[in-house]
Each structure stands twice: as structure tokens, then as C-alpha cells.
Design goal:
9 helices, single chain, alpha+beta, 384 residues, two-stranded antiparallel ribbon, flat
Length: 384
Amino acid sequence: MERLAKLKSSLVELFPERHLYVRSGGAMKGFVLTTKKQLMIAGGMAAGALWMGVCTAAMLVNLLSVSTADREIAQLKAQSERYVADRQARLDSAMARLNAASGSNADLAQAIEKRHAALAMLLTDLKGAPGSAEALTPAINRALAAQDSSPVRRVEMVRIGQEQLLEAADSFAKGRADRLRLAFRMAGLSPSSFVDRGSSLGGPLIDSGDPRALAAVLDVDDDFAVRIQRAARDLNESKQLAEAARDLPVARPTNGGSQTSGFGVRFDPFTRRPAYHSGLDFNGGYAQPIYATGPGVVSFTGQRSGYGNVVEIDHGRGLKTRYAHLSGFAVRPGQRVAVGQRIAAMGSTGRSTGTHLHYEVWVNGRAQNPGRFLKAGQYVLQAD
């Protein structure tokens, strides 16, 4: 009350009562501007100034965004034009070499055979990767579709088909690796910590750091060797990340039901005060099945203070999941479980206001947001 009184006196001092006299046609009128009226006028003027400032800022942001988008479109157009011109120049150069000497046909055929050997090494590693058949089949069909009557033209079309096949393999390997790296970052994990740089797939395709040395090993041109190496490196990383992703707890712990409480600060249902919530809550019926969100080993079953009945699973690499307020157990400590395996039943034990599941994810002893892992699971499914 004292503070309100001080604030009121300050406003009265700032906006004291004023008398305004207006003389018109020999008559004088008086107007009284009270403190309240002056505050209303000042507030209206401040609101108008703020509105004008917001509108001006919005117009400036819109102009800047449009100019940025135009520049990006121009850059993409220029890149595409350079790419088409480069491909056309390579084709013209290859055809010129074919017509330059009678022995060029034999040289080109030998180069194609060497490229086939390098592609075979890469495609052997790609074989069996999820989605590789769908991604590479169109390029393979185009490579086999050369039915030109001229033998010289048919050989050149095979060479172009090899370029297209390598481009498709490179795009597939890079796209799959990028999706998996994004999934790990969304879960708050570093992709590099899950990739073993010491064990490379493909032998000389990755081990050689010098493109010229790799080209000599594969007996192909430098550009083709670099592209083979890049695709093999991305493929190697995507395979290792895919294997590591299969151990991550990224599946849903329940079928059906909705999330009723998020991770972080919330109002405690008992004290009605802000409190830290270290997991996610899912509603459901009593004794509804609870499933393991990733493969691992059951490290604990029993009661913990505030959590009631708890199941904890160790997934390796410092990852652990906790399932709380359970009504019963379906596993025992030391048991190995698979993703999607039933481990418990939903209940309301411990510090709970009703039947639900409290789910936590721990990384190296610290609670993380399980929602990030659930969202990362969507990208893992896309990569598979």
C-alpha cells in the first residue's frame, strides 16, 4: 500500500491538475485537465507511437526478407546453369576425344571397365542399405537403356550412365547420413561420438587421404575417385549411425494415450508451486502395457521415493530410461529386452494423482527431454 501511495504521488507530481482557458468571440471557457485525463492522453500517444514503430519494423523486415529470397533464387539459378554447362562441356570433351584418334575407343572402353570396378566396390557396400534399391534403380535402368545403333555412341552412353549412377549413389549416401546426423542432434547427442573413425568401410575408398593416390589405386581419373571416396565415406558414417540409432530409446513407451505433462518447470499438482519435472507424463488405463523404447538391459525394478514402482533400462553409451508409477513388472533385473517389448503395466503408485506413466531419459547421469528423442525417432525411421 505504501508503494502504491508513493506511485500515486509521483504521478500527481508528474501530471498535476492543469486549467486551460480558451477565449473565443469575447467569451472565455475553462477546461480542467485532471491527472487521470492526462494519463489517458499520454497512454494513447504512447500506444500510437508503439504501433507506428511496430508497423515500420514489420515493413523493414518484409523488405529485407524479400531481397534475401531474391538473392538466394539468383544464386540457385546460377549454380544450376554452371552445373548444366559443366556437364555439357564434359560430354563435348569426351566426344571430341572419341573423334580425335582411332585408338580412343579402346582407351574409353578400358576406362569404363576400370570405373565399373570402382562402382562395384561402392555398390557392394550399398547393397542391403534401406532405400538403396529404390534410389539407385532408376539410375541403373538409365545406364542400361543405351540402344543406339552406333557402337561409339553406345560406349559413351554407358560412360554417362556411370556418371548418373555414381551421382545417385552419392546423393543417397549423403542424404541418409544427413538425416541420421540430424536425428542425433535433435536428441541432443553428438553424431561424431557414435562414429568410429578408426574402422573404415571399403578399404582404400576411405583410408586414402590423397585423391591422386586413391585414383592410382582404383586406376581411374581423379574426379571420379574423389566422388567415389565421398560417397563411401558418407555411406560408412550412415551405417555406423544407423547401427547406433537402433540402440537409442526413440520409440514411444505406450500405445495410445496422450502426453499430459511436459519436461521442465511446471506447477506441482500437490504443492501448486513451480517445480522441475524431469520427464514426460502419458495418460492411459490401469494396467495398460508399457513398452521398452529401445534395446538394453534391465538395471533396476522396484520402488524409488516419489516414483513408486519403477523399471530402469540401461541402453549403453551412458543412456538410461526410467518408467515410473507402475502397477506391476513384466521383467527382472539383468534381463535383456528389445525395443517394443512389454516391460510393465501402467499404474498410480508413488507420488501420483492418478493412473499414468512418468517416463524419463538420462544421458551420462543427467535427465534429458524425452520429447527430443521421440522426435528424433521420426528421422531415424525416414533414414531406414
